[in-house]
Amino acid sequence: MSLKQKLQRMKGHLAREGSQGTASADRGEMANEVSTKKQLLDPSIPTLDIPFLDQWDHLQAKPYIQDGQYIMIREISYPLSQRHGRYRFEELYEVIEMWQQSDTDHPLSSARLTPDALLFFDTETTGLHGGVGNTIFLLGYSRLEGDRVVVRQHLLPSPDAEIALYQSFLEQVNDSQSLVTFNGKAFDWPQVKTRHTLVRDEVPQLPQFGHLDLLHGSRRLWRNHLPSCRLSLIEQQKLDICRTQDVPGQMAPLLYFDYLNDRDPRTISGVLLHNETDLLSLITLYIHLSRLLLAHESQQEQLRVSPEELYEIARWYEGLGEWERAMTRYRSIIERAPSGDHSPLRARARIAMGHLLKKQKKWQQAIHMWEQCMSEAVYLPEEVYIESAKICEHQLKDYEKALAYVNKAFEVWKKRGSMLRKRSRAELEQYQKRMERLEQKLHRLV
């Protein structure tokens, strides 16, 4: 029971001892309340025996004390002009303005937010899997505050101090509106919710944050071009961030358990620095992804995007129903290719454009786009020939051309079946039925 609750329980008993006693008790209660509030508002006042306090001070961490328990809060700040890898932190203002000027409703858009409303969030836990048995021992975040980027890390020094951990964290982040994480939707925030349920009667409710998960965007753009989409690899390959003497993330639980034994902050300092880099890299990664996604909104940004990235971005916009944005990027891939280039990527862009034109019922333009691929002797999937045949048969009523496309599709199908040693009787019957139908329509015309 907290000191304040104990005083509230004693209030009725003290009131029966007379007006003088009441006044004295009230003054004592008020003094104790002021003392308690001061302790919460100024957590730097140590009232407990905290081991290695001088070492914590060296790490720029101070205690937060509540109800006889304490956690450590480490705070570091950087000027907005500071560069972390490829970008300066102040460029976050620029990309949010770019989102505001764009009319796209993209999942990574921050158009309705201000820079200081974004909470770049990451945790460190005692295990790599979720569930009640997995304890969060570090809640970390970075965000813009005035003319600085501030990193705060709330560290759990013992398993019985979770109330103080979540109380201190929720006091700080209530004015934020959206989380920015790397796999936070699937892991970090669900884990916070799970642990919060264990202390929810003692601490404020969790805010209703929006959520921008950068892992999803990273996989969209780079899963086919990077060995993996780990944040450390993306830092090296895309963000020009090179970590030196970094503690691997999988070592964090082991080092935390060692810290619980010796209580020496130096044991956990590498984990704190690793998490700090993660939090700063989230800002850089969000700036980078935003610039790639919005590159074609500004002519000067276009050359930042590789053709491979451009193709994946176009596919993403197409999946969102942003057909014009997708078309612009597919077209850019074709136009940027050198004369005579018959690369598979350029062919895929043309094929994708053809499908989009078909969806828009621009039949002739779709056929023209696919025929350009055919004339370049590029391997095309049978689907392209079948779709061309459908347009010629049902929209253009050109049965002779439709039959020619079906025959080409049939040849591709036979080669594919020969290579895979597998041919579907149902697919064969479908081809035969389509060819017979078109031949009958041609005979009627004759």
Keywords:
17 helices; two-stranded antiparallel ribbon; alpha+beta; disordered N terminus; 12% strand; 446 residues
Structure description:
- This protein is an alpha+beta fold.
- Helices cover 56% and strands 12% of the residues.
- The strands form two sheets. Strands 1-2-7-6-5-8-9 form a seven-stranded mixed sheet, sandwiched between helices. The chain has a two-stranded antiparallel ribbon with strand order 3-4.
- The longest helix is centred in the middle third of the chain and has 29 residues.
Range of helix content: 55-70%
> What is the number of E strands?
9
Low-confidence stretches: 3-41
Q: Over all CA atoms, what is the radius of gyration?
A: 31 Å
The main β sheet shows up as:
7 strands, mixed
Trace the largest sheet across and list its strands.
1-2-7-6-5-8-9
**Tally of individual helices:** 17
Output the helix-strand order.
HHHEEEEHEEEHEHEHHHHHHHHHHH
> Which structural class should the secondary elements be placed in?
alpha+beta
The proportion of strand residues reads: 5-15%
Give the overall silhouette.
elongated
What average pLDDT do the residues reach? 87
Alpha carbon gap, first and last residue: 96 Å
Précis, in short:
By secondary structure, the protein is α+β, with helices and mostly antiparallel strands.
Walk me through the topology.
Elements: H1 3-15, H2 19-41, H3 53-58, E1 61-66, E2 69-79, E3 83-84, E4 87-88, H4 91-101, E5 118-125, E6 136-145, E7 148-155, H5 162-173, E8 178-181, H6 184-197, E9 210-213, H7 214-222, H8 231-239, H9 252-262, H10 265-293, H11 307-319, H12 323-336, H13 344-359, H14 363-375, H15 382-395, H16 399-420, H17 425-445
Parallel strand pairs: 5-8, 8-9
Antiparallel strand pairs: 1-2, 2-7, 3-4, 5-6, 6-7
Helix pairs in contact: 1-2, 4-10, 8-10, 9-10, 11-12, 11-13, 12-13, 13-14, 14-15, 15-16, 16-17
